[in-house]
Amino acid sequence: MNIRHVITPAVVAVLFAGCRSEMYDQPRYEPQEASTSFRDGASQRPAVVGSVPRLSPADEPRCADHDYLAQFQKAVDDPSFYDHFYEGKVDGKTAETFPFKMAKTDLVRGRERFMIYCSPCHGPTGDGRGLIVLRGFSSPPPLYGKLPQVSQTPVAIYDDLRKAPVGHFFDVMTHGHGAMYSYASRVPPDDRWRIAAYVRALQFSQSATKADLESIPMPTAEETRMIQEFQQ
Amino acid sequence: MPQLFTPAANTLARVSILGAAFLGLGVVGGSYALQTSPYVTKVRVVQPQPVQFSHEHHVSGLGIDCRYCHSSVESSSAAGVPPTYTCMSCHSQIWTNAPILEPVRASLREGEPVTWNRVHDLPDFVYFNHSIHVNKGVGCVSCHGQLDKMPMVYKAEPHTMGWCLECHRNPEERVRPTSEVFNMTYDPRDFLEKFGVKNVGELGQKLMEQNHIQKAGLDQCSVCHR
Description:
The structure holds two protein chains of two kinds.
Chain A: H1 4-16, H2 68-77, H3 79-87, E1 89-90, E2 93-94, H4 104-122, H5 131-134, H6 166-175, H7 189-207, H8 210-215, H9 221-231
Antiparallel strand pairs in A: 1-2
Helix pairs in contact in A: 2-3, 4-7, 4-9, 6-7
Chain B: H1 8-35, H2 38-41, H3 55-61, H4 66-69, H5 84-91, H6 102-110, H7 130-135, H8 140-144, H9 161-169, H10 200-210, H11 221-224
């Protein structure tokens, strides 16, 4: 056998070895890749009806300034914290309190999330005149002050949202309300609580007096540093 | 027996040797040009989509933040193409009869996702994670271009290995304050005063420190090929 009969196929094999696409497109699903295994053509499956959320690392809040982790560990054994955190309910009633302590950094994060997810309709100040509303979406009630007559729709529960408990805002974000869809899949529960806290701050800011301003303690140097660090 | 080759054959031989060299160069150069051309990299090639979704309208026209739809970009490897439910959180009431949105409504009706055509597709042997880039201060624009000016989305950059390495070797040239990642019109010169630096180069160094970016090792093979 001539040596060429071995070398030529070997050279050709080496040259064309890189021409297969298996490495580029490996037999696994990438996020949101289509699948022929299911009727709707999606490889990512929705949660089974009746699934209960478990505390997951994704829910672990990102601000490191207080000891959330201990609270989360506690929650595994404490069904009341679970109801409060995920459902906004305390003793079966809409929660009047936050499930964790709100620090200034939480309010800053709440404002950021409010601007992303809420301001398109509710407007940056919560007056209900966001750009999507100006384009024709149903006008949401202002987050503060008396509801105007046009907003007195059957879905309105409170005639002034300043009277609503914080759990109400959490509930609306979680399950949707009236024309508003649920934001549960886009905003994790801890951020929903932070947005609720920021809504409270907005409500306060819109009816604050000069005396109120003077009674608020200025942030300490440590708090200012934390906020700046968080914002950057 | 007459001469097989005329004297002109000498010239022909020389020219053909030179020609073979040029041909070789041409093949190598040509295939390189092909590999970096939009024909292969798909740069600036608009992909047809089932719905003519305009980023320009939603981003610069309405001022909607990237994260309103791409909500997992800060916490996951994939930025997330929004589900039909996200589109319908506005379009349940706006443009409800627009023919352009019929595939979206059909998707909600029939419970089948809209099949978008992929614009960016890295090979499967590349490990890429959106969240780490976003949280370390790499702006959307650096890889995806001015989406606020794209009526139909296209790939703005080649996304080849050489292109990735350009930034992995010099991240200080592109890193931003983490608050400006989603800003479509970010200009580092606006931030010199806030950070107390004299020029853009110093700002980059300062941000590298602040965002905890360690340049050494960013161009190691195993950073992207795991």
